[in-house]
Amino acid sequence: MSTSITRVVSTLLSGQNATPCAITSVRCNHWFASVLSLKSSPPLRAEPKKKKKVDPRREIMARERLKKKLKKLERVPPEFIPIEDFITPAKCFDEMRVRSEPRLAFEESERRALLLKEWSRYKHAQHQAEMAAINGAVEAQRQALEELRLESKELYQAALAPDMGLLPFTHQGPSYTPPIQNYEAPEGKYNNITKVYTQ
Amino acid sequence: MAAPCLGMVVRSMWQFRNINRTSTTLLKGIRHFSSSGECSCAVKLKYETHKPASQWKLYGAVCLQRLPVVSQDPNPIEQKFVDIMQQMELERSRLSDHELRLLEDAERMSRKQEEDYDSDDEDLVNQEIVTAQDDEDAWEQKLKRFQPTGRANGAAGEDPSSLDRCLSDSLVLLVQQEVGKEKVWLLPQLQWTTGETLRQTAERALASLPGTDLKARFLGNSPCGVYKFKFPKGVQTESCVGAKVFFFKALLSSGTNPTSEKGAFVWVKKSELKGYLKPDYLRQADRFILGL
What we know:
The complex is a heterodimer of chains A (199) and B (292).
Chain A (H helix, E strand, L loop, with lengths): L1 H13 L5 H9 L13 H4 L8 H21 L31 H46 L1 H8 L39
Chain B lengths: L1 H19 L35 E11 L9 H17 L4 H17 L18 H13 L26 E9 L2 E5 L2 E3 L6 H10 L7 E4 L6 E6 L11 E13 L10 E4 L10 H10 L4
Parallel strand pairs in B: 1-7
Antiparallel strand pairs in B: 1-2, 1-4, 2-3, 2-8, 5-7, 6-7
């Protein structure tokens, strides 16, 4: 580009010694509005425009924003594990299953109401008795510790020390029938079909 | 549950006082350590030189309980309540699959009995050969084949020293020991010796019973009750006025009865304690032996 410019400028300045093809090329071409306005040649103007340095950054930022939006959409909170006991199975709402309600005689309903009241009185008395027994036991222990304190300091401190081997405490409660001596339980195979949910 | 917490609170309070008080005063026969007292004792077993001679002998005793193996029979009122509740719940419930099957089978049988019965009308694909009633009978037969042990509940006249009596109540071990000059029924006890805690005394008392291998689980380090008694005037000396027996609770985990002496020990329910223990002793023991 610089060579053609210098060539044209030199023809203009010298006037005579310019090559005929260069002059003809300058004057015959209709692209040039004026000879002085030589800024670009056709091959130059067909080139795509040069990008400024800000553009790559803008593109990168646009891509990041899109990625962030995608991540937000993907960040779904985990589904709650359904509690099987709280969902009534659809079978229970079947109308076929409704029992025919028996009409209660007046005496029967009276008997039931009176029994419920008697039961509440019985349970109340039982609770009071239990509470009294427990309080009595606690009081007995407190008095025992008092006496021990009056006796000797060391024994008292030893008594107050927590028993590490006590907890965790497990005990097999009473069953309906006592255990059979030397009982061999039959081997039972079973297929476990409980549903296991993972979050 | 309340007692260990109380113990922890009391212990932390004592430690707080020990940090604050720096002077140590001799304990000159003062045995009442009131809360505003000015003594602070180091919590060490070596600090024994300034202790006054105690006027009471110390004993450690073990209250060994065998917890119930079998559930209790319901009271009359409990039985009535159970029946009524079952009745009410049955009335409010829905029919189960098995009951629906029973109803269908009954309906089918009644249809078959009718004169204008046409077996082509039946939905033969869904019919089963084994009816619900047959299933029920089969299940009952299977149940009868299993024989559980009976719930024997302490009939009168049983051997009081057997561990298998009164399976639905908790039993306490009583032994006959010589106190003074007479044989007395009481919870197994031994005199405390220096250098051990009272709980160790109680464990020793349990282990020293002749011919036993009873494995027990002690419930905590603190005693559950105390019995204080003064010796009769003739036996009292300057140094000891009487004795204090500290009881420790333990649960029987395993073990067999002693086989050597038959009459020396007994497993009793709470209601039977009256027949064995002296009145004062019984009054104290009744408080921590819960009949619940």
